[in-house]
């Protein structure tokens, strides 16, 4: 629903505040994830459940023109503002052609 709203409103950013600090690979928060990495981690069953649905929605939002998609922990004080200011908190979801350098720039 959030991705559809972001698309409808032509939002520049979509930020998910979740109950986890970002997309996890074991205990580690992934700083960024591409569609190919998402597919691989899903096949390996490292990403499952609600996070799969969130990431699918994130990919759709990027495909429809949302410039920034970020998944961050909502329990982290100031995480929303930090995300909007380019913080390295959480996981940035990037388009297939983007590199980590381009996302962090």
Mean pLDDT: 85
According to CATH, the fold-level topology is Carbamate kinase
Helix-strand sequence: HEEEEHHEHEH
Largest sheet: 4 strands, mixed
Shape designation:
globular
How are the strands of the biggest sheet laid out side by side? Answer: 1-5-6-4
> Ends: how far apart?
29 Å
| The CATH C-level class name | Alpha Beta
- Counting DSSP H or I runs of 4 or more residues, the number of helices is 5
Strand residues, percent: 15-25%
CATH second-level architecture: 3-Layer(aba) Sandwich
What Rg, in angstroms, do the CA atoms define? 13 Å
Regions with pLDDT < 50 over 5+ consecutive residues?
99-105
State the share of residues found in helices, binned by percent. Answer: 25-40%
Number of strands: 6
Number of domains in the coordinates?
1
Can you give a write-up of this model?
The protein is an alpha/beta fold and 105 residues long. The protein has a single domain, classed as 3-Layer(aba) Sandwich (Carbamate kinase). Helices cover 39% and strands 20% of the residues. The strands form two sheets. The chain has a four-stranded mixed sheet.
Write the layout of secondary structure elements.
Blueprint: H1 2-8, E1 13-18, E2 24-25, E3 28-29, E4 32-33, H2 35-43, H3 50-63, E5 68-73, H4 79-84, E6 91-93, H5 100-104
Parallel strand pairs: 1-5, 4-6
Antiparallel strand pairs: 2-3, 5-6
Helix pairs in contact: 1-3
């Amino acid at each position: 629903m959030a991705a559809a709203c972001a698309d409808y409103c032509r939002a520049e950013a979509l930020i998910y505040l979740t109950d986890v600090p970002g997309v996890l690979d074991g205990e580690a928060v992934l700083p960024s994830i591409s569609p190919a990495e998402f597919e691989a981690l899903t096949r390996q069953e490292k990403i499952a459940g609600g996070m799969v649905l969130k990431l699918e929605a994130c990919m759709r939002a990027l495909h429809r023109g949302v410039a920034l998609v970020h998944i961050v922990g909502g329990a982290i004080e100031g995480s929303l503002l930090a995300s909007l200011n380019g913080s390295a908190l959480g996981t940035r979801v990037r388009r297939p052609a983007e590199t980590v350098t381009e996302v962090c720039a």
